[in-house]
Amino acid sequence: MDSPGRNHRRRQSTSISRVRIVQGSCWSCRKRRVKCDLTKPSCVRCTQIGATCDYNNRLIRWSSKRTLPVSPSYQILDQGSQLAESLSINEKRALAYFQGRFWPLMSTASTPCAPPVTLALEQRVLLLAICLIADRHRVLQDGRNSLRVPQIKRVECLAAVRDQLNEFCASGKGPMVELLLSVLMLYFHDGYLECAEKSASTSSHQAGVRAIIDKLGGGEAVLDIGPECLHMLVSEFASTDLTTTMLRGGLPYFSPGIWDRIEQRSVWWDREPLAQCSLASVFGHISSMVHYHESINSGLEELRPECIRQFEISLTPSYATHRSQDVYASEIFGWDETAASAEAVHASSLIRSFQHAALIYLYRAICGLPTRHPLVQQHVMPCLSSISGIERPSRVLNCVILPLLIAGAHVQSIKDQKCVVNMVNSIYSEIKFASVQLVSNVLDSVWRLDSNELSWFEMFVELGPDTVVL
Fold this sequence. Notes:
Layout lengths: L3 H14 L9 H6 L11 H6 L29 H7 L3 H17 L11 H6 L1 H19 L5 H24 L4 H18 L8 H14 L3 H4 L5 H21 L10 H4 L16 H19 L7 H10 L9 H10 L3 H30 L7 H4 L2 H9 L12 H8 L5 H18 L2 H15 L7 H4 L11
Helix pairs in contact: 5-7, 7-8, 7-9, 8-9, 9-10, 9-12, 12-14, 14-17, 17-19, 17-20, 19-20, 21-22
């Protein structure tokens, strides 16, 4: 047991060491349990030891521990995020697939413009069109998914488009840019992915695109409005509209002189870095030849050698070359010369393949020369060589189907035909477009017949009215 004297000494020692905290002391003095002189902004004791003097009512401490996630209902979202939160799981998946997988296939540009995802979040008719084309392509890509979902989406999307058109006809107002994007999506959906099915109606969607563009003021007016993604899709529509008339006859929607305007903003092709030739100018010359061919058929003009010679000069195949100023620019501005050279070669190869294909069209469709004529055959193998020289992986290969179809239909040897088949299969394995399979079927049909006895339009009649080739 403790003695009374020891307990007395313990109580005395405790009372002596205890320091009462002055009311209003800083937090540093409170923690060290010393007397604070209440000097502000910093007391004497904190100044002497270099401590932080804090007179706040509450002590604020920063913690390194991870905080719990905030519930989505309390998060502050921008408009796009708020709209995305309202989508179903299937719609979110379709948008992600469209943006990451399908949209890059629509362009050869190294840095394509942004897809119309934000507009799709604001206009459901566009959202349905994008989800439709994404779900349909996923079926072709995987080969396991059911067609039931795209079929339901197709019916819903067509109904939404009709409702928008009825609303516009009734009030004269409506989201015409988004509606144009929606019908463009339907056009490419049927022309690229659905062309082998009975439900395809590519020509109807093509007429719908033309009608909406007319309502917006025509091709010239459309090129001055809308986001970049619209211009990119319009450039692809103009290209496929031109190739359709090139293979089946008729007149393209856009005039030959508009192609320079088209190239001033976003387009589906990558511009040739060395600026020796433009794919837009090639399309302009092809359009002029199509118009010239129709004028001859209608009796408005006659076949004149000087016109043929002018087309030959305009479509002389171009080649990418290195120039000293390009090397200097790469040293001064830090450009990647190797990457720039590959980009220039691929872009030039794409342009050159279209130039050869256009000259084959000139000699076969306009001049009426047979398949085996030397003027025709002199462009067949160079066209295929331009395509086969494009190194993989390259987005340029996704858009050489038309030159490959035209040149492939005119090859003579079995060895060259096998090379064409390998190139077609390689492209199909990359993009999984049903239109590429139909191109393979057309080539096989032409090779089984005597191609020298077939006219230009007879060669491609089995392509069908709903197939879009680029």
